[in-house]
Amino acid sequence: MRTRLLLWGIGAAGVVLGVLVSVLIAVSDIIDDHAANIMATVLIGWSFLGIGLYAWGTRPSNRIGPLMVGVGFAWMLGMLQCSDLALPFTIGLVMSPSAFAIVLHLLLAYPTGRLGSRAARAVVALGYADVIVGSLVYAMLVRNPDGIENGPRNLLLVEDAPGAADAALTALTVVGLVAIVSGALLLVARWRAASTARRRSLAPLLWTGALLLVFAAVMLAADIAGSDDLEDGFSIFSVFLLTAAPYAYLAGLMSSGWARGRTMGDLVSGLNAAEARSGVRDAMAEALGDPTLTVAFKRHDRDEWVDADGRRFEPPPGREVTEIARDGQVIGALVHRGGLSGDPELLRAVADTAALALENERLQAELRARVAELRESRANLISFGLAERRRLERDLHDGAQQRLVALSLQVNLARAKIDDDPATAATLLDSAREELAQALDELRELARGIHPAILTDQGLGPALTALAERSPVPVEIGPLPAQRLPSSVEAAAYFVVSEALANVAKYADATHATVRVAREDGHAVVEVVDDGVGGADPSRGTGLRGLAERVAALDGRLEIVSPTGCGTIVRADLPCASS
User: Fold this and answer.
1) Is residue 397 part of a domain?
2) Please, which residues have CB within 8 angstroms of residue 427's CB and are 6 or more apart in sequence?
3) Which of 356, 384, 412 is the last residue of a domain?
4) Radius of gyration of the chain, Cα coordinates, nearest whole angstrom
5) What whole-number distance in Å separates Cα of residue 346 and Cα of residue 369?
6) What CATH number does the domain containing 359 carry?
7) Separation of alpha carbons 225 and 213, rounded Å
8) From residue 18, how far is each of 5, 41, 375, 380 by CA, in Å?
9) What is the mean pLDDT of residues 430-442?
10) Tens digits of per-residue pLDDT, 249-280?
11) Backbone angles phi, psi at 569, to 5 degrees
12) 3-state secondary structure of 535
């Protein structure tokens, strides 16, 4: 309601201003063609005002409407230079070039109302600085602009310096010419980057604006060259194009709606015929006119993007990304060329229309990704298992087996000596007992690495306590789940903590570590935190990679956060629906 009242108030003020300026022009003695000037005032001013208010009301978040209203007011205020009264004349003298600066802003911001590049912002800033600073400087130095004799008093005049005023006017004109040419080049670049569908909606205002900038540039160049006839001729065409600009915008709105409707129709037809094609991506690419368009899907089980085949996806450089949401949750993204970003409403409409089909493809892509991960995990587990078997074989051969062989020899020697040399036999048996004890310790250590008995018999808490007691680094065991976890989850949690604490002891140079195991939303979260040097890299060793495979086999996720100098966090998230 407030917006509507504001728009009605602005409209009423614009009508009053147009009538007031027309009256002042009608009674002015410093111009000859009163009717033409009055017509130019109301036709251009009220056209921009009316269509700008319509655009403002229908698209309040878009800045095109306010910019058009600004052009209307600036134009009518600029026409006050036709008045023979001092105050209106001075206002018109300062405001006369401002409408063209706002038009430049309008064209470069069309159709979103926002300047999309640093270059566009620089050009618009140059245009505003030129008309504001240049007009004020010129007004302070000129008594009779445009050679008006017996004209009204210039209230801003500081000193009548015709030479300095001409120099200021030339500088204003040159800078304005640079801004206009730069703006025209940016419009050409935007046209070339736009899709076919986008060009249909851009065409009316963009071509009208481009021609207006060209004619304005020629007019300014003619002014610099001193060609009055050429300047007057092109100024007439510039006024005509300026009059046509708001109606071209209105035509663009209608064309945009028609183009959007046709695009949506093409998309729906493409989605209905998806079985005969390679999928929703082709339908969207054809509807948007971007054959390079790519669709990425957001995995809900982890923070990563995949393509339609389930492979991890990273947007290539130089491409823009528009996220797609369904029921408030991001399900995918369109990776497209930059020209499509000029019509975010069209992109959003296409994404919303295809959201259901994209959700189905996302589920398929996520399934493919999970299958690929399971295949890789299975292959890695087999490889890891074989490596562990070889390690156990080597450890048994080099450790316990050698001790048992030595033990057998010592027992045989003791048996041979027991009758003839009982003292030597006793010494040999004592040595054999020590060998046996060491062999048993080594076997227990090996068994603990395979599956510790304390974990099976007493549970995760005592097993973690035993790990903490054996660690050379002080370890604090935090609260543990009140009920036992599934055996597979307990085993994975135990080995995560075991490997993490082993790494803390070997590499972290830490003074303290904390172990936490909690049940959260159907998952067992295992976390080991140390205050060491950080910099842990899972790719440099087999231990953490093996843990990741063990966790992945349970459909879990292992995360390692280890910034250099800030310690390490090893966190495993394991599905644990029931105990």
Assistant:
1) no
2) none
3) 384
4) 40
5) 31
6) 3.30.450
7) 18
8) 20, 7, 75, 79
9) 69
10) 766 655 554 444 444 445 545 554 544 335 66
11) -120, 120
12) coil
- pLDDT attached to residue 569: 92
Clarify whether residues 226 and 285 are in a common domain: no
* Non-local CB neighbours of 497 within 8 Å, separated by 6+ positions: 464, 467, 515, 526, 528
| Placement of tokens 């029921």 in the chain | 327
Are 227 and 291 members of one domain? Answer: no
Looking at the DSSP assignment, which residues form a beta bridge with residue 514? 476, 529
What is the pTM (predicted TM-score) of this model? Answer: 0.52
Examine residue 439 and state whether it is found in any structural domain, yes or no.
Answer: no
567: its two tokens: 């310690």
Q: In what order do the strands lie in the sheet with 557-561?
A: 475-477, 513-520, 523-530, 568-575, 557-561
Beta bridge partners of 530: 513, 568
Degrees (nearest 5) of the Cα angle 268, 269, 270? 90
Q: For the chain, how many structural domains are there in total?
A: 3
How many angstroms from the chain centroid is the CA of residue 298? 14
Q: How confident is the model at residue 128 (pLDDT cuts 50, 70, 90)?
A: very high
* Tens-place pLDDT, residues 344-360: 666 666 666 656 666 66
Query: Rounded to an integer, what distance in angstroms lies between the CA atom of residue 447 and that of residue 434?
Result: 20
252/304 same-domain check: no
**Domain that residue 154 falls in:** 2-260
What whole-number distance in Å separates Cα of residue 96 and Cα of residue 555?
Answer: 70
The total number of residues shown for the chain amounts to: 579
Judge contact between 74 and 20, C-beta under 8 A.
no
Residue 434 falls inside a structural domain: no
Name 332's bridge partners. 297, 324
Residue 245 lies in a domain: yes
Which tokens belong to 74?
């600036």
Q: 3-class secondary structure for 415-461?
A: HHHCCCCHHHHHHHHHHHHHHHHHHHHHHHHHHHHHCCHHHHHHCHH
Give the other-Cβ count within 10 Å of 290's Cβ: 20
Q: Are 134 and 168 in contact (CB under 8 A)?
A: yes
Q: Report the SS3 class of residue 317.
A: coil
In this structure, the answer to whether residues 22 and 115 fall within a common structural domain is yes
| Residues 315 and 243 placed together within one structural domain of the fold | no
